[in-house]
Amino acid sequence: MALSRDVPPQVVIPTFVDGRELAVWRSQSGRIAAWDDRCPHRGMRLSHGFVRGESLSCIYHGWSYNEAGLCQRIPAHPDLVPPEAIRVPTVAAVESDGIIWVASEPASQPPPTLTGLVALRSLTVEAPATAIATAAGMPIDQDGALRPDLAGIACVLLVQPIPGDRTVLHVLVASNASPAAQAAVSRALEDLRRRVESERLAA
Amino acid sequence: MILYDYILSPDCYKVRLLAALTGARITLRPVDFHPGGEHKTAPFLAMNPSGTIPIFEDDGLILTESSAILTYLAAKAGPAWLGDDTPAMRGRVAQWLAFSQRLSASIGKARVHDMLNKPADIQACRRAGTQCLREIEAALVEQRLAGHAFLAGDRPTIADIACFPHSMLAPDGGISVDPYPSIRLWTRSIRALPGFIEMPGIHRLHDLKPEPGPIPERV
Predict the structure, then answer these.
(1) Which value, in Å, is the radius of gyration of the alpha carbons in chain A?
(2) Superfamily, domain A2-102
(3) What's the whole-model pTM score?
(4) Short-list A142, A137, A120, CA closest to A190
(5) pLDDT tens, A118-148?
(6) ipTM score here?
(7) A8 contacts in B (CB within 8 Å)?
(8) Which residue is closest to A183 within chain B, CA to CA?
(9) Which of A45, A130, B123, B182 has the maximum number of C-beta atoms within 10 A of its C-beta?
């Protein structure tokens, strides 16, 4: 879903799993959570919200939700204990090897092991995953990854399809790659995206 | 120092923001940009024949380009905002000041098209705006690899002030900012600066403020 380094404490980001809009956020103490990206009050995206301590608040009317997704405070009614029915649906989120994973269904498999790698960046490509696989000249493996060499560095591109025939690539590189080598990989990714998107425009 | 100002203009906001961050005292003169079109009237065209705002006036000097105003205000009120006095830093800052014109011509134009019904080739504006945001994101990825949180180095400069407003306001022109994790963290770093001020569409970091009251206890 995202790189751990892109969601530091008190940051909330929008993402998708199986077309479902999610807000992924990290509390002040470092806990990661993935919720439906809708405030139960007025439907505002919670990914526009803000994190104080261990709760996420909606930007619209400030309703705040505790770590279980339960509404704990309605600023316009400061003395009211919100009813337990006001709750944001949550999905399971785990972190491993610098990547935040969200389970698409309750019995999902554990994430693949990605040792010896360091997370570099995520980038969105305006093309389906199959077009990226074609440009990279390899199939997507059983981990949902492409494993090309970019700028001479072994890379893992985790493939996340999102609505609108778009794809997010979460990119990891060999952990012994220098910052200069990582920057070269980042530029090679820009080149890969240009090739995929221009082939798509031509077609 | 007088700024002829419009509250919804990102280019005017850049000047207000740098003044707030440096503690410079400027006098704001509101311009009826919309619907009045006051910036196209004779007194304004006498100051600025190009018919744009902001216009900045100080001690007989008139400046009309936001990047020039930022340079002047920084030199006068906060030279650290110009970056270190090295050729590389001067070049990097000038690069982003020039780049910010592309943001105005793409995202800025898409925004006035969507908000004020000004004519534009909206699809072309959005494509160009997305391209600009991708370039900023790629540059920030490389800055982060070098341990730097800002566009031109490890501390904020007028390069950041010049590129920050349009990068946040892109959704006003129908351009998503969701796909850019490094831009998200960079805009948070700017909004966390002491003295930061808001404009409509760019809010402060509410997470930096304490909870306004106690959380009611469940019994």
Answers:
(1) 19
(2) Rieske [2Fe-2S] iron-sulphur domain (2.102.10.10)
(3) 0.96
(4) A120
(5) 999 999 999 999 999 999 999 999 999 999 9
(6) 0.95
(7) 185
(8) B142
(9) B182
